[in-house]
C-alpha cells in the first residue's frame, strides 16, 4: 500500500509539474500541446465546422446572376462582441475573454469556436522569454481569426492573423494564415494590400497545390471587387489547374464560364461549361446549371439541336426533377430562337408547372410568355402574365421588376377599356335587335345552357361508383362504367337499400320528412337553389336585362366612345401600335361621338398618318384647319415649334413635379403646398403641368384640412382647368363629396 501511495503521489506531482506553462521542459511542452490539440481546439473545430454547415445549408445560389467566388453573404448586421474582463491587461488577441453559462445559450457556433480558441490561448500559451513553446497556439489563433471572419468582425480577425505572422513566421500554417488575412482585407475593401500579399506568396517556388489554388482564388476575389474582369478570368484559370478543393474548383469553373458568357465569348464559355460537366467530382447542381448555360452560349443551329437532344435526356432523368424548371425554360428559349413558338409556349408552361420551381425562375418564364403575347398584340393575355410576375417576384425593387410593373400598369388601363368596349358593344347589339329576334337569341341561349346542365349532371352520375360505395356493396368489372339506371344489378341493389333505410315513401315534396309541419332553413335553401335554376331557364329574366330606354342606351354609347378614344391614345402613345390606334379612332369618328372628342380624335389621326407617311394625313390636316381654325391643334399644325417647346418644358418641369409628388407620398402635406406655391410662379404661362401641380395641391389640402377646404381647392382646379384631365378629375371628386 505504501508503494502504491508513493507511485500515485509521484504521478500526481508529475502531472501538476507538467501542467505548468512557465517551465520550458519537454514534458510541459508536449502536455500543453496535446491538451490544446485534442481537448479545447478539437471542440472548437467541431463548433466551427457546425457553423460552416449551417452557412452552406442556408446559402442559396442565384444562378441567374454572376455567382460570388466565395459562397458567403454578409448581411451587415451588428454581431455581439465577446465580453472582456476588466482585469485583463494583455493586448494579445483573445486575452481577457470571460465565459459565462448565461452567455453560452445565445452563442452561435462561431462564437463557441472563438471561445475555445481564446481558452486555449489563455490556459496553454507558453510564451517564455518572448518565444512561444506550445506549437499548437498558432492553430488557436488561426481558429480565432476564422471564427471572427465568419461573424463579420474583420478587423479583429486581421489582428489574430497578424499575431501569427509576427510571432510564428515559420509555422506550418503561415501560408494559410496569409490567405485568410487577404480575404479579410478584401472584405474591408483593402484589395490592393490583399493582391500584393498574394502575389508575393505565389512567387514562392515550392507551394503546396492547395495553397496555390486558394491564393489564386483569393486574387480572383480581389480583382472582382476592382472590376478587372480580365484578371479575374486569369486567376480563376490558374486556380482550376489543380483540384484539391473540388467544390471550389467547380464553382470557379462556373464563374469563369459566366464571365466569358457575359463578354459574349460564347465558344470559350461553352468550352468551360463542358469542362465543368466532365469534372466528375463536381457537385451535381453545378453540372446541371452548366448544362443549362450551354443553351445560352450555343453559337449555331446545329449546336442548339444537339443541346436540345441533351436536354430531353436530362428531362427523362429522375435525378433532375429539382432542376426541371430551369431545363424546361432553356428548352423553350431554344425553341423560340428556332421560331417554334408553340413548342416554346408549351415548355415555358411546363417550367411554370415544375414541382420544385423557384420564384425567380417563374418570373422569367412568365416574362417570356408575356412578351410573346405582347409581340402578338394580345395585350390582355400579356397583361395577365405581367401581373403574375409581380405576384411571384420576391424582390420588387430591381430595375427589371420596376420596368415590368410600369408595363403592367399601362396594360391594366388598356384591359379596362377593352373590356368596356367589348361589353358595351355586346349590349348595344342586343338592344338594337327587334323583339322577335331577341327572343330567338335568348331561346337558343337557354337551350344551350340546358344542354350543358344535363351533360354535367350525366357526367356526375357516370363518375359516381354507386355500387362500390353505397351501403358497402360491390360492383362487378362487367358492369363497371355503365350508367347507373341502365345497370340492372346496381338499380335493384339501390332500390332495396333505399327501402331498408327510408321505408316506403310516397313521391312528394319533402319526402324525407315524416312530419311535414317541421320546416327548417335547409328547406328554404333547397328552394332557393331550385328557384335559381328555374330562373336560368326563364326568357323573361334575360329580356329584362336588355336596356331599352334612351337614357340607358346613350350612357352605354358614351362609355363605349370614351373607351374607343382612350384605347386610341393608349395604342398610340404607350404601345406605338399605329394600326390599332387608327382603327379605334376612326371607329370613334364613325359613331358620331360627343363634340369634345371629335377634334382631338382628328388631330391624333393626322399625327398617326403623318408618321406613316400616308396621304390621308392631308385630309385630317385640312379638316382641322378649315373647321377648327382657332383651336390649339390648328396652331400646332401651322407652327410645330409650339409643340416642341412644350415637350421640352415637360422634361424640365416633370423633375420638379416628381419632388412634389414624393413629398406627398411621404405624407409631408404642408410641405407639398409650400413647395407648389413656390414652384408655380416659376412656370411659364400656360404650362401643361400647371394643372397637375394644382390638383396635387388640392389632394394635399384634403389630407390635413377640412372637407370644405378640400372641395374649394378641387373647385378651383375644375374651373381653371376644365378642359384638362386634372380638371375633369377634380370635378368628378367634387361631385362625389357634395352628395
First-to-last CA distance: 111 Å
Classify the helix fraction into a percent range: over 70%
Record field, number of beta strands: 2
* Continuous helix count: 34
The proportion of strand residues reads under 5%
Biggest β-sheet: strands ordered side by side in the sheet? 1-2
Give the overall form.
Answer: extended
Keywords:
739 residues, mainly alpha, two-stranded antiparallel ribbon, 2 strands, 71% helix, 1% strand, extended
Care to describe what's here?
This protein is mainly alpha-helical and 739 residues long. 71% of the residues lie in helices and 1% in strands. The protein has 34 helices and 2 strands. It has helices at residues 2-19, 26-58, 101-104, 109-124, 137-150, 154-167, 174-187, 191-202, 209-225, 229-239, 246-262, 266-278, 284-296, 301-316, 324-337, 341-353, 359-375, 379-392, 399-431, 435-463, 466-469, 488-502, 521-536, 539-545, 550-574, 578-590, 595-611, 616-627, 632-638, 641-665, 669-679, 690-704, 707-720, 725-738, and strands spanning 127-128, 131-132. The chain has a two-stranded antiparallel sheet with strand order 1-2. The chain is extended and about 105 Å long. Residues 5-20, 22-27, 76-91, 94-104, 467-481 and 644-652 have low confidence and may be disordered.
Amino acid at each position: 500500500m505504501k508503494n502504491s501511495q508513493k507511485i500515485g503521489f509521484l504521478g500526481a506531482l508529475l502531472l501538476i509539474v507538467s501542467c505548468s506553462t512557465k517551465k520550458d521542459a519537454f514534458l510541459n511542452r508536449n502536455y500543453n500541446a496535446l491538451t490544446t490539440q485534442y481537448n479545447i481546439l478539437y471542440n472548437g473545430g467541431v463548433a466551427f465546422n457546425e457553423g460552416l454547415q449551417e452557412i452552406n445549408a442556408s446559402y442559396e445560389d442565384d444562378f441567374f446572376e454572376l455567382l460570388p467566388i466565395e459562397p458567403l453573404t454578409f448581411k451587415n448586421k451588428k454581431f455581439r462582441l465577446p465580453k472582456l474582463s476588466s482585469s485583463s491587461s494583455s493586448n494579445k488577441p483573445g486575452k481577457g475573454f470571460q465565459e459565462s453559462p448565461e452567455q453560452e445559450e445565445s452563442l452561435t457556433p462561431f462564437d463557441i469556436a472563438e471561445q475555445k480558441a481564446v481558452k486555449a490561448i489563455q490556459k496553454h500559451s507558453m510564451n517564455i522569454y518572448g518565444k512561444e513553446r506550445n506549437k499548437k497556439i498558432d492553430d488557436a489563433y488561426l481558429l480565432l481569426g476564422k471564427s471572427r471572419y465568419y461573424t463579420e468582425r474583420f478587423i479583429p480577425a486581421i489582428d489574430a492573423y497578424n499575431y501569427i505572422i509576427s510571432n510564428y513566421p515559420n509555422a506550418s500554417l503561415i501560408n494559410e494564415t496569409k490567405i485568410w488575412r487577404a480575404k479579410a482585407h478584401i472584405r474591408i475593401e483593402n484589395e490592393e494590400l490583399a493582391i500584393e500579399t498574394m502575389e508575393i506568396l505565389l512567387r514562392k517556388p515550392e507551394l503546396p497545390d492547395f495553397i496555390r489554388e486558394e491564393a489564386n482564388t483569393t486574387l480572383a476575389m480581389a480583382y472582382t471587387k476592382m472590376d478587372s474582369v480580365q484578371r479575374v478570368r486569369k486567376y480563376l484559370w490558374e486556380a482550376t489547374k489543380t483540384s484539391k478543393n473540388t467544390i471550389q474548383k467547380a464553382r470557379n469553373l462556373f464563374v469563369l464560364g459566366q464571365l466569358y458568357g457575359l463578354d459574349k465569348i460564347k465558344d470559350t464559355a461553352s468550352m468551360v461549361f463542358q469542362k465543368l460537366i466532365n469534372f466528375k467530382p463536381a457537385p451535381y447542381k453545378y453540372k446541371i446549371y452548366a448544362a443549362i448555360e450551354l443553351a445560352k452560349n450555343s453559337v449555331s443551329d446545329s449546336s442548339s439541336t444537339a443541346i436540345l437532344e441533351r436536354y430531353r435526356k436530362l428531362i427523362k432523368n429522375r435525378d433532375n426533377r429539382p432542376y426541371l424548371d430551369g431545363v424546361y425554360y432553356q428548352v423553350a428559349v431554344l425553341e423560340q430562337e428556332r421560331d417554334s413558338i408553340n413548342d416554346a409556349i408549351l415548355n415555358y408552361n411546363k417550367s411554370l408547372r415544375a414541382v420544385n420551381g423557384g420564384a425567380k425562375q417563374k418570373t422569367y418564364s412568365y416574362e417570356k410568355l408575356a412578351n410573346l403575347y405582347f409581340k402578338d398584340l394580345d395585350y390582355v393575355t400579356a397583361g395577365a402574365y405581367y401581373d403574375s410576375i409581380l405576384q411571384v417576384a420576391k424582390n420588387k425593387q430591381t430595375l427589371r421588376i420596376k420596368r415590368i410593373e410600369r408595363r403592367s400598369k399601362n396594360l391594366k388601363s388598356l384591359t379596362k377599356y377593352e373590356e368596356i368596349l367589348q361589353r358595351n358593344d355586346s349590349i348595344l347589339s342586343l338592344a338594337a335587335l327587334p323583339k322577335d329576334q331577341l327572343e330567338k337569341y335568348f331561346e337558343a341561349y337557354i337551350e344551350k345552357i340546358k344542354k350543358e346542365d344535363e351533360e354535367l349532371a350525366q357526367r356526375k352520375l357516370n363518375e359516381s361508383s354507386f355500387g362500390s360505395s353505397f351501403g358497402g356493396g360491390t360492383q362487378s368489372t362487367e358492369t363497371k362504367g355503365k350508367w347507373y339506371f341502365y345497370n340492372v344489378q346496381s338499380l335493384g341493389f339501390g332500390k332495396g337499400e333505399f327501402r331498408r333505410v327510408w321505408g316506403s315513401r310516397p313521391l312528394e315534396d319533402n319526402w324525407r320528412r315524416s312530419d311535414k309541419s317541421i320546416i327548417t332553413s335547409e328547406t328554404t335553401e333547397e328552394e332557393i337553389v331550385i328557384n335559381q335554376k328555374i330562373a336560368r331557364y326563364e326568357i323573361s329574366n334575360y329580356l329584362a336585362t336588355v336596356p331599352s330606354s334612351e337614357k340607358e342606351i346613350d350612357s352605354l354609347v358614351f362609355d363605349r366612345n370614351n373607351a374607343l378614344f382612350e384605347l386610341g391614345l393608349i395604342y398610340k402613345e404607350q404601345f406605338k401600335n399605329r394600326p390599332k390606334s387608327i382603327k379605334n379612332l376612326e371607329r370613334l369618328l364613325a359613331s358620331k361621338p360627343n363634340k369634345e372628342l371629335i377634334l382631338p380624335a382628328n388631330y391624333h389621326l393626322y399625327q398617326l398618318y403623318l408618321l406613316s407617311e400616308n396621304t390621308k394625313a392631308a385630309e385630317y390636316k385640312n379638316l382641322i384647319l378649315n373647321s377648327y381654325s382657332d383651336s390649339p391643334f390648328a396652331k400646332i399644325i401651322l407652327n410645330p415649334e409650339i409643340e416642341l417647346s412644350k415637350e421640352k418644358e415637360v422634361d424640365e418641369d416633370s423633375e420638379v413635379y416628381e419632388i412634389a409628388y414624393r413629398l406627398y407620398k411621404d405624407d409631408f402635406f404642408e410641405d407639398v403646398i409650400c413647395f407648389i406655391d413656390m414652384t408655380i410662379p416659376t412656370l411659364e404661362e400656360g404650362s401643361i403641368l400647371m394643372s397637375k401641380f394644382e390638383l396635387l395641391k388640392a389632394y394635399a389640402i384634403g389630407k390635413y384640412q377640412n372637407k370644405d377646404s378640400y372641395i374649394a381647392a378641387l373647385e378651383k382646379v375644375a374651373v381653371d382647368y376644365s378642359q384638362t384631365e386634372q380638371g375633369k378629375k377634380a370635378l368628378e371628386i367634387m361631385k362625389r363629396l357634395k352628395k
